[in-house]
Amino acid sequence: MRTLDFAPLYRATVGFDQIADLMDRVLTNDAGTQSYPPYNIEKTADDAYRISIAVAGFSSDEIEVEVKENALFVSAKKADEDTERKYLHRGIATRAFSRRFHLADHVRVSGAEHTDGMLHIDLVREVPEALKPRRIEINGAKAIEADVVDA
Known about the structure:
This protein is mainly beta and about 150 residues long. About 10% of the residues lie in helices and about 30% in strands. The chain has 2 helices and 7 strands, in the order H-H-E-E-E-E-E-E-E.
């Protein structure tokens, strides 16, 4: 695997630490360890997103969704099961999981819904008015009146 050295980036820039950390995290993340539960991330509008996670076998009480420090944490733990059940085949995985999604600045969770074995988390990007582009009106040149001296 190829590793990248971000030292030149740190020497030449100020305030871009999050980008370098994100790139480092993405490049060092082992994709094989995070395959459960399956999920989708979709863009539903220009500034709206939806994360859909397959949580078959979990009730709403067993799922926890939390946002802290620009990260969305979704975790679930199955309540104690009946030990009297004897499965011939068990294909529905209900093992505990914890998944983390990093959120960009100004992205907030607007709601969550658990229906038909799917957990849908809606996100919206709300850019503050101070950061939105604004148009500056250009005034016309005013004629400068010179003082006229009568002779």
